[in-house]
Write a structure and sequence with these properties.
Layout (H helix, E strand, L loop, with lengths): L3 H9 L6 E2 L1 H11 L3 H14 L2 E2 L7 E6 L4 E5 L1 E2 L11 H11 L5 E6 L5 H10 L6 E4 L5 E2 H4 L28 H10 L10 E7 L4 E5 L12 H11 L7 E9 L7 H11 L4 E8 L5
Parallel strand pairs: 2-5, 6-7, 11-12
Antiparallel strand pairs: 1-4, 3-4, 3-6, 7-8, 9-10, 9-11
Helix pairs in contact: 4-8
This protein binds zinc ion (ZN).
């Protein structure tokens, strides 16, 4: 057993404690003679300490192992003043964080509690092969099909779009509007075809982007503001550091994130400006 304080110190030594590079994972597991899956489980209490459950005070933490060998932490984010369906669950945070760092497949996940039904449905969009090993409270790993039998998912709708894809990235310095447009192009929106992205600029000049992540059951979807906030929190920033926000949506789309995004920003970053562009042409796939 590694001292939790040692693991915390290792994680906190990086620019973002939410991402542990593959080389470090290898070094840790070799030096301490534990498996990567055991390391995942030992990271869970540290992940819980990073949660921001401002309504429930119930801290949820997960640690996800990607195919690259890197580990990503996830935490729950709750937003006072907003409906509960705006909550970001730890599993959603961890998956979005892994996707934002270029991960294209997930191998294993450990969590402080069993994934709720909402998260099992969210994971069903991600784990298209049903091979993700899920560990809860030091129990044996279980697959998602065993936790979500008789599931409804993308295959029921005849869709093959992969959730974990390499993201589009700007090849040169780009405006906030352009960063939001590029983030929109990396959306997973096979059900509405409404690509959407958000770019947030903080007071220190950093930019965080988020892509819309849609779910076959609709409700577990993550808005582009949600995924941008995950990137911001994973970098240790406060919500009030946001100064500008740009939402990019698709012309002729059946849905819009504008009203809810505007309201959520007002609650968490009242000083931030908000603008919307429609830079994705109708019919873009
Ligand atoms: Zn959940």
């Amino acid at each position: 057993m590694i001292l939790p304080s040692l693991l915390s110190a290792v994680c906190l030594s990086y620019s973002t404690p939410f991402v542990i590079p593959a080389e470090t994972v290898n070094t840790l597991t070799e030096q301490i003679s534990i498996t990567r899956e055991e390391l995942l489980q030992q990271l869970v209490p540290f992940a819980q300490s990073l949660a921001r459950p401002l309504i429930s005070n119930y801290r949820v933490g997960v640690a996800l192992l990607g195919k690259s060998g890197a580990i990503y932490l996830g935490v729950n984010l709750e937003f006072p003043g907003m409906p509960l369906n705006q909550t970001i669950h730890a599993e959603q945070f961890g998956v979005a964080c892994a996707r934002q760092h270029g991960e294209t497949s997930l191998i294993a996940m450990a969590g402080s509690a069993a994934p709720c039904g909402h998260c099992r449905q969210f994971l069903n969009e991600v784990d298209d092969e049903g091979t993700l090993q899920i560990y809860v409270a030091n129990t044996e790993g279980r697959t998602l099909p065993s936790l979500l039998p008789a599931a409804f998912g993308p295959k029921n709708l005849g869709l093959q779009d992969k959730f974990m894809i390499p993201l589009s990235l700007p090849s040169h310095p780009a405006s906030l509007e352009e960063r939001a447009r590029i983030a929109a192009l990396s959306s997973h929106a096979p059900y509405t075809l409404a690509k959407s992205g958000v770019a947030l600029e903080t007071e220190d000049g950093k930019v965080y982007t988020g892509s819309y992540l849609e779910n076959a059951a609709f409700n577990p979807s993550l808005s582009p503001l949600h995924t941008a906030l995950i990137a911001l929190v994973a970098d240790g920033q406060s919500y009030t550091s946001i100064q500008r926000a740009v939402l990019c949506e698709q012309r002729g789309a059946k849905i819009s994130h504008e009203a809810v995004s505007c309201e959520l920003l007002k609650q968490i970053a009242p000083g931030a400006s908000f603008a919307k562009t429609m830079a994705i042409p109708e019919g873009t796939r």
